[in-house]
Amino acid sequence: MKNLYLSKGAFPAKIFEPTLDYIRQVQAADGAIAWEDGAKFDVWDHIESAMGLTIGGDYDNARRAYDWLLRNQMADGTWWAEYRNGIIVDATRKETNFCAYVATGIWHYYLVTDDKDAALSYWPMVKKSVDFVISLQEPTGAIPWAGEPDGGPCNDALITGCSSIYKSLECAWHLSVLAGEPQQDWLEARGRLGDALRNMPDQFDRTWESKARFSMDWFYPVLTGVYRGQAAKARLAERWDEFVVDGMGCRCVNDEPWVTFAESCELVLALLANGQTERAAEVYSWLHQWRDDDGAYWMGYQYVENIVWPEERPTWTAAAILLAADALTHHTGAAELFTSISLSEHEDAFDPAYKVAK
Length: 358
Fold this sequence. Notes:
The protein is of the alpha+beta class. The chain has one domain (13-357): Glycosyltransferase. Helix content is 51%, strand content 7%. The protein has helices at residues 13-26, 43-55, 59-72, 96-113, 116-121, 123-135, 159-178, 184-199, 215-223, 229-238, 240-243, 261-273, 277-285, 315-329, 346-350, 354-357, and strands at residues 40-41, 82-84, 87-90, 94-95, 146-147, 244-245, 249-251, 258-260, 300-302, 307-308. A 5-stranded antiparallel β-sheet has the order 6-7-8-9-10. Strands 1-2-3 form a 3-stranded antiparallel β-sheet. The longest helix has 20 residues, at 159-178.
């Protein structure tokens, strides 16, 4: 398949059935979804893959994935950085954007299924995880990228990670309202975080080299709603030629000839969030040349050496393909989750920089 153009109302379910099958085949008996069969996995990518299953209507296996999170959540609301075959392989940290992302996954499940009972069954898990993340927030509003094994904060913050948390706090707020327990402090934390992301660049990358070479630092603040309207349009235009390779996709970093396809799908979502529908459909159309015969998608392509690299087909890349397809076609009730903000009357009150972001 060379190009696949999608538009509203035209979700190609038959084309994506093998992609869903690939995620199912990798999912372990305990519900965990590794990067590939027998490979490592982390909570963020596990949740991304569960969302892919949900889009495909495989609610049972999506629930099995969320049940794994429920069973393996620690007392402080966290999960370790990495697992493999049911075993913890990296217990050096508890990454905050991983922990927060569970709210995004459960809210996504509810939007697709309208299953309130299922969503509420996970509410205690979400509350514990989000409370942990919020507990680490710094006075400036930035949230450290991880917690130490003892629960204390690591001493730096990431733009991409904090942008992801910003979106997760929106989803967490909705779940708290659904549960009848509105968490006003979560909205306040989201407002402070948005202010830091827009106006305090010195609060990020304080102890290591800037991550600005990564495309995710460029478009994630648009994807997650930190920037909107003209501010978002200007941000995307500013570095477009630096990261986007026509006919291929989005580069992972600006100093390597390497396009990666999960990032390309997320760029599609960022474009849709900014109302650039035609450009989003065009970028998405390029990605299906990187589909393998069984419906899986390669991680990336090195276009100087003309090789697929690395030779990995992550489940979360397949899930990103499905998330972008849903957003383009409006296939499910969660189609606009990553392309719109729905806090309405609460927004101005709890995000002092909101009007600037417009």
